[in-house]
Design goal:
Length: 502
Amino acid sequence: QEQETFTDKEPMTGEHRPSSAFNTPFWTTNSGAPVWNDDSALTVGTRGPILLEDYPLVEKIAGFTRERIPERIVHARGASAKGFFEVTHDITHLTCADFLRAPGVQTPVIVRFSTVIHERGSPETIRDPRGFAVKFYTREGNFDLVGNNFPVFFVRDAMKFPDVIHAFKPNPKSHIQENWRIMDFLSHHPESLHTFAFFYDDIGVPQDYRHMDGSGVHTFTLLNKAGQARYVKFHWRPTCGVKNLLEEEAIRVGGTNHSHATQDLYDSIAAGNYPEWKLFIQTMEPDHEDKLDFDPLDVTKTWPEDIFPLQPVGRLVLNKNIDNFFAENEMLAFNPAFVVPGVYYSDDKFLQGRIFAYGDTQRHRLGPNYLLLPANAPKCPHHNNHIDGAMNFLHRDEEIDYFPSRFDPVRHAEKHPLPPRILTGRRTRIKIEKEDNFKQAGDRYRTFAPDRQERFLCRIVDGLSDPRITHEIRSIWISYWSQADRSLGQKIASRLNVRPSY
Ligand code: HEM
């Protein structure tokens, strides 16, 4: 029984296994040694005990026990797909970004959609913002537009991000998401009202990932060849339209398939029904900001489209499913710090915090050389000496690992423009001047049709009906919503003791 014969020892060529990392038809250890029995452990006699020298068993179990890496602290649940971005409109007067150099230019992309709060295996029907992260593999390095489906965020200072996430995450004692914690924390943050006007709206539960908008959320800066700077906001609009799940549908869909959005994305692409979004920008002359009654760099604000119209730029087409979920989703790493010449950050102090956070968490989550992994590495030539450390798997034979050197012809890249604005100011920890917390939330509510307003109201009342929410907290929320829209505030107040039913 122990005798095995190897009939086919010839390595299998790439032709036979075109999409696999492996090139032999027989089983081996990771070091390439043939394994003649992968069914039974090496034992003393037929029953055991197992010998410690059973290397194939030890390697197999040790690999298995390390199969998972830490999940993302936020956006753990996600699905990704690949495709391309194509420029459709010339914006070279606004930016010198090479990937936007002319209509028709295509750039390969990988996109990851996600929910924010819950774990890697959580249902995709929960009320939560959705992540919409796009990595453009440009000729000038990767540009990551790491956005959400809502165009605004709950708080505006990076110092508050861990708190808002903790408030939304499950209670550390019970491990249950509890409204009283969310309402308690955000009662200190009236700037959250505008984002609640998205969260409690129907779009709080998108039908799937294909039928939702995307937004870069923050204000970024575009720079043209002459060094002129304009503020910019990025927006994705799906060509198949925005669709949502109302409460009953979400319960039905989520109860049937907790991965329905991942499945919808995968199946649509496999069927050749490629999801597509148009990219639009809004631009603003930096001087214009003084004329506004809100701060355009404030991440809790949108820019009114009648003053700052949407300008078309290109289209995003997802026409290829990923080959491996672990390599192209779990080990995928986006970073809003990754910009390209012609696109820059703004002084938005929420965005500034993000510039630090992503690389930091990814060095912890994936290891210091995570940017060498195929999904994360640039597809253009690159060159530096920052790659020693765990898992530098590049073959290298250079003798020069310092810069500059007269023995190495590598030189600085060509200079590209930075925002010309002069930065001055005293060190301070302070709120922004133009908070304007209520107007845009009220404006948005007033655009809803009556049935949509009613559903919105029910969700607010439901959220505030948690018995652990105190009278004080409820009163604060009623006051906030009243300042956004007087009649909405009154309705919330009069309904609060009534449990709404949909
Ligand atoms: C993921 C931090 C604000 C969108 C993450 C991750 C961290 C993080 C640590 C996990 C990254 C990883 O493990 O690869 C922060 C901090 C923020 C902030 C500190 C504020 C100071 C935002 C905002 C947006 C956003 C405003 C929306 C524009 C995303 C998305 C992902 C993500 C889409 C998932 C990326 C992926 O699919 O891998 N964030 N975040 N974040 N964040 Fe943020």
